[in-house]
Amino acid sequence: MPNIINNESYMLDLCVRMAHHSTAIEGNTLSQNDSASIILDGYIPRAVREQEFYEIRNYKFVLPFFIDNLRKQTKLDNELIKDFHKIIMQDLIYNNGSFKTIENIIIGADFEPTKPYLVATEMKNIIDNLYYRFSNYKNDDDKLRAILDFHIKFERIHPFSDGNGRSGRLLMVYSCLEQNLAPIVIPQDKKVAYISYLRNADIDNFLIFAKELQKEEQLKQDKFINNALDSTKSKNLNKSKQKPKLNNFEIGM
Fold this sequence. Notes:
Order of helices and strands: HHHHHHHHHEE
Shape: globular
CATH superfamily: Fido-like domain
Strand content: under 5%
Oligomer: single chain
Strand order of the largest sheet: 1-2
Number of strands: 2
Largest sheet: 2 strands, antiparallel
Helix content: 55-70%
């Protein structure tokens, strides 16, 4: 279990950025500051569309469940993935938390998503393959490639009627943290490149792209870790300055 998930400030910051960028990729118009107000302060800063509010708010709901499963070292399976989807799509669709029962399409794709009756089996297959690769790979680059490959396959299966992109990107972050890798948050301004990698199943360039994002994320992690260390040192220093006590009486100095 990576220690970074115990850094509350970092995980909240990650949650805000995931919420903003992942929903913005899908067309949400709220800013990152708006997202921070909703998630951190429970405050709606201005008149917003109800759907856009729910899309952001649901990340606040999913974060405790997300962290709890990382702490328990829970491996991904169909049920956990459906649980993530149920929370992330709460109040947005009627069948959140359930695999699709009607065929869906990806506009402009040169392939058909998996048929509904095959989804559960195909999902189990790509999950099993992911963990097989994790167990046999020691190199971080190989593990990252496995995560990205899983993401491409997940999006091609398109297991849900809606919310596949958001769910898939959430699973990428989960797998990275599970494997003690810096998580990948796809910025909205990189949407065109990201969609191109998915559309063309371009794993090699997707890997290069993701590694650059990891470098940026690692710098963010380092700042939060250093800030936490500074806070701990300050608290310890303040404690050391307190006068020692004997039987609840201060000792004169």
